[in-house]
Design goal:
The chain is α+β, with helices and mostly antiparallel strands. The protein folds into four domains: 281 residues, Sandwich (Jelly Rolls), CATH 2.60.120; 77 residues, Immunoglobulin-like (Sandwich), CATH 2.60.40; 80 residues, Immunoglobulins (Immunoglobulin-like, Sandwich); 87 residues, no CATH class. The protein is 14% helix and 33% strand. The chain is built from seven helices and 31 strands. It has a seven-stranded antiparallel sheet. A hairpin with a 2-residue loop joins strand 8 and strand 9. The chain is elongated, with a radius of gyration of 35 Å. The protein starts with a helix and ends with a helix.
Length: 562
């Protein structure tokens, strides 16, 4: 019996080397289109059990670009049958998936025992519920989730022959892994990549399995409840598993001729390194692939949007971009650049990567086009606890959002979403400096880009504005400017400034050029830290004894702190 399967292996090796096209690749699914769910079969329907063992199954719906499975309480063990979503495959194959397993909350390993999801290879059964007999299950699977210890990630690999199941459990670093199975004649190789590199997980010799197998995704949860409450014939608590598959890829193996006739379960004559030379990452070395998917892009109206993909596979590799179902003529490079984007350009973009062997289509990358930032934003204190904010209108805006910050880091909304281009913020605190920003909102309630920030300080100045030196300079003018400058310094996370003559006594302390120069230097340091323009001064330097202190010098500082 074994020599007959070795002959099958030799023949398949020759065929794999000689055939360039891969007839299994069209079975693959990147799970980017919900309609491809109809291309998959399910065991409970094929065998007529009338017992759907999934609470939820969809593609590109619950999670973007994934098939998501949430099982009812069910299991695969001995005669018990769980969920299998599959396609039929004849002959040798390699199947690969990217699976994430978690509890229903999505934040930890499942709390129910033996709640896992992965790849299953099963011998078809020509049965109905009426003709079912025990002892007929034959399969292999490798899955990820919680096994014999609740809330702890593990791998489970199981080989079942005539409904006699033998399982092995090993720790898994997390709930995410790449999983792969390869069939080469009577040999079956399980691999996983949960830590950044592929490893051979387990090898099997199963000459009993037929040429055609059901190959696909399995999920199951809460074995103890099944064993205590159900019989295998029922095939029907606390289910706690979500299994999400990023893709499921089928292909033929390309086995080195040097392994023809080898016992692939013998780790001495065929070490893991030899298997990894054509499996794991190298299983798709020649196929068209996507090393890096295009990312979603948000672009301001009138600017450029750029999508990039990293293709892989045997050269030459070609590219074709599409928007939705429409091919973008002439867009055949790894980078798609859209200039001067408008609202009509918003939507889903994808790229098909092809070579002489096959092709693969990327995930849908979403382009969101937002309104430009309002220009000419001006924030000015209109009272001790209020600030008036104004800006230039933005075309197509239906409302605006105004935010403020008193630490230049965290911005909070000001009350109101005006349809016009002004807002009075009455929630400000006295003697405080703020940064204000504004953004426009379109008819779809999509917020645009924020404007450049503008400064406002709620210090109300006495005798403001000064009138062409007609106003007598007073001690209170210096004190108010010192309060305002230190408010701006606090906003910029700078230390409180210290000044000569800390106390300005009316009729005693002479207002000096040094008082103004200290205010300027401390203010300009803070403005620079806030990336705001520094103050504009008619007399950049005021020298004691050579330049008189004038009203304009005070007006310039009041304008700079606003």
């Amino acid at each position: 019996m074994r020599s007959r399967f070795l002959l099958w292996l030799v023949v398949s090796l020759v065929a794999a080397v000689a055939t360039a096209a891969d007839d299994l690749v069209p079975l693959s699914d990147e799970f980017s289109n919900a309609s491809t769910l109809s291309n998959w079969q399910r065991v409970y329907l094929v065998e007529g059990w009338n017992a759907n063992q999934l609470e939820l199954q969809n593609i590109n719906t619950t999670q973007s670009g994934r098939m998501v499975l949430e099982p009812c309480t069910s299991t695969w063990y001995n005669d018990y049958r769980g969920e299998l979503t599959f396609k039929s495959v004849q002959g040798d194959f390699v199947v690969t998936t990217d699976v994430t397993a978690s509890n229903r909350a999505g934040n930890a390993a499942p709390a129910s025992l033996f709640s896992l999801g992965g790849i299953m290879l099963r011998a078809p059964r020509q049965i109905t519920p009426q003709t079912w007999t025990p002892g007929g299950e034959n399969y292999l699977f490798l899955s990820l989730g919680a096994a014999d210890v609740a809330s702890t990630f593990k791998f489970e690999v199981k080989s079942t022959t005539s409904s006699n199941s033998v399982l092995f459990l090993t720790p898994a670093p997390s709930g995410h892994s790449l999983i792969q199975w390869a069939r080469i004649g009577p040999y079956f190789i399980a691999l996983e990549n949960s830590s950044g590199s592929w490893v051979v997980h387990r090898r099997y010799y199963r000459p009993d399995l037929p040429a055609i197998l059901q190959v696909g995704m399995t999920t199951y949860t809460d074995y103890p409840y099944c064993a205590a409450n159900y019989t295998p014939l029922q095939h029907n608590s606390t289910p706690d598993l979500v299994a999400a598959f990023d893709y499921f890829r089928y292909e033929r193996p390309v086995v080195p001729s040097s392994l023809a006739g080898s016992d692939l379960t013998n780790t001495t004559t065929v070490p893991d390194s030899e298997l990894l030379s054509f499996l794991g990452a190298n299983a798709r070395a020649n196929h068209a692939g996507i090393a890096q998917q295009p990312a979603d892009v948000t672009a301001v109206r009138g600017t450029a949007a750029v999508f990039t993909v990293a293709g892989a596979g045997e050269e030459p590799v070609s590219y074709q971009w599409s928007k939705g179902l429409s091919t973008l003529i002439g867009q055949t490079s790894p980078t798609l650049m859209l200039s001067n984007v408008q609202s009509t350009d918003a939507g889903d973009y994808s790229v098909t990567v092809s070579n002489s062997i096959d092709s693969v289509t990327s995930r849908n990358a979403r382009l969101t086009v937002i309104l430009p930032a309002p220009a000419s934003v001006v924030a000015t204190a209109s009272g001790a606890t209020s600030v008036m904010v104004s800006w230039s209108p933005v075309t197509d805006a239906v409302s605006y959002q105004v935010v403020r910050s008193d630490d230049a880091t965290t911005f909070i909304p000001a009350a109101g979403t005006p349809a016009g281009n002004t807002l009075t913020d009455t929630g400000a605190a006295a003697d405080t400096a703020y940064l204000y920003k504004v953004r426009a909102v379109d008819a779809s309630n999509v917020a645009g880009a924020y404007s450049v920030a503008d400064l406002a300080t709620t210090v109300i100045f006495t005798d403001a504005p000064f009138g062409n030196d007609a106003t007598m300079v007073k001690a209170v003018h210096i004190d108010e400017l010192r309060t305002a400058v230190n408010a701006v310094r606090k906003l910029a996370s700078r230390t409180t400034a210290t000044f000569s003559d800390p106390t300005i006594t009316p009729g005693v302390t002479t207002i000096q050029a040094d008082h103004l120069m200290q205010l300027r230097s401390n203010l300009d340091e803070a403005l620079a830290a806030l990336f705001l323009p520094q103050g504009s001064y008619a007399d950049p330097t005021i020298m004691a004894g050579s330049k008189a202190v004038m009203a304009v010098h005070f007006t310039e500082l009041q304008n700079a702190v606003k």
